[in-house]
Amino acid sequence: MLDCVVTDAKIVNHTGIFEGEIGIRDGRITQVAKGISETTDRKVSARGKMVLPGLVDGHTHMEFPFMGTVTADDFESGTVASACGGVTTIIDFSIQPKGSSLLETYELWRKKADPKVCVDYSLHMVIREANQANLNQIRQIIRKGVQSVKLFMTYRRDGLLMSDINIYRIMKEVAKYGGVVGLHCENNDYIECLVSEFLAAEKTEPYYHAKSRPPEAEVEAVRRATTLAGFANANMYVVHMSTRGAMESVVEARNRGLDVYAETCPHYLTFTENMYRGLAAKNYVMSPPLRRREDKEALWLGLASGQIRTVASDHCCFTSEQKDLGKEDFSRIPNGVPGTEVILPILYHGVSRGLISLERLVQLTSYNPARQFGLFPRKGTIQVGSDADIVVLDPKKRQRLSKDNLHSRMDNSIYERITVTGFPVLTLSRGRVVHEDGQFVGKRGGGSYVPGRPHSVRPKDL
Ligand SMILES: [Zn+2]
Fold first, then answer.
1. How many Cα atoms are found within 13 Å in the side-chain-facing hemisphere of 148?
2. Is 54-372 the same fold as 4-52+384-440?
3. Distance, CA 262 to ligand 1 centroid (Å)?
4. What is the pLDDT of residues 206-219, one digit of tens each?
């Protein structure tokens, strides 16, 4: 007896499309076949729809203390939004409180997330200080399943900036145990210099946020980071990459034989820096900032060609009121925007426009992040033995991405004016229905921690 069978399913995996049925028992996929004869408790018809592996959102910040405040979504409200957007696994950034060890930080994040998460989750670790004690604990956190460490090349004022020598030291240590180093690539000195010039000239509006963080600041940092990754023989991952130049540097590094991969985010694929001229400019403040149209177009081409490996949300919400912390000074606006619920609709919009294929969508949002962060084959695919993490997308459903239709705690939606055709209508997390037609029907604490496995073999063939 099965728990559930998904019938009339047009199943889209990274390798292709198969029409058939999916059998589920005890939270796992037990059969994928043309027809399933075994009896079942529940049948879900997916006629006329598409059935995809649940998304793995490899970049979220729930309950994240940053720039003098804490992100508006906690692990409950944030993962409700994830579930309603077809995301069945998030990978959140645990960040060391000053003076805490890496193991203490891991425990702290487990304690925050475990009782609240509504879908499964895994963790990255932000390292603030490269002291010997932290270096010594890298091996232990990788054993706990935190196989990715993140370092910042900017945000000195917030105590996050890592020097080149320390990036190198950490990369070497992480590489020893098969982990990955994620990097926020922006040249801190250049940015600080521009920020102080603008502020001195009394240019304080959000528009100058983008002007003070130009594309070259990202390109330079990506080049430097890939050079360090080459020295350390490390597997490196550029988070939230936003420019064509950065993408070219990543490709160039890979052509030199380095394990360098990159992710981009829905907002860079949707908006341009023009948003900083609008009335709601503060709500679009994130780093790196929105870019030129040519960058946006290059990123879509990078998704199509496989030069960009993954799309993740960088879900990092601050309400309009929180954004007002920078009313007098753009450099004090908390950086970040929501996104976990819109990854699938924004990318499906790209499928409708012929920019990427359906299989590529699955690679970018599920299969590749699952591989990159050691969650495959449990996550990232619809196959026998995998977790029954499944999203059903209705290609005809029209939906406005307005705050009234989205589930985050945000008081506004940066996507407010955008209406998409094609939207997730059902999400299964380990066989349980957690979202149906815009309603969250799962439960607080229903998700679990999923440890990432380090790469004993480097993901060259991702
Ligand atoms: Zn982030």
1. 26
2. no
3. 13
4. 999 999 999 999 99
Tokens of 107: 């425990």
Strand extents, DSSP E, 61-134: 65-66, 69-70, 87-95, 120-126
Q: Element (H or E) spanning 110, and its range?
A: helix 102-113
377 cis-preceded (ω within 30 degrees of 0): yes
Task: Using the predicted structure, report yes or no on whether residue 460 has a pLDDT greater than 60.
Answer: no
pLDDT digits (tens, 9 = 90+) for 2-47: 999 999 999 999 999 999 999 999 999 999 999 999 999 999 999 9
CATH number of 4-52+384-440: 2.30.40.10
Burial of 165 (C-beta count, 10 Å sphere; 0-12/13-18/19+):
exposed
Query: Domain coordinates of the chain in residue numbers?
Result: 4-52+384-440, 54-372
CA of 225 to the centre of ligand 1 (A): 17
For the record, the structure tokens of 196 come out as 């102080």
**What CATH architecture applies to the domain 54-372?**
Alpha-Beta Barrel (3.20)
**C-alpha of residue 18 to centroid of ligand 1, in Å:** 35
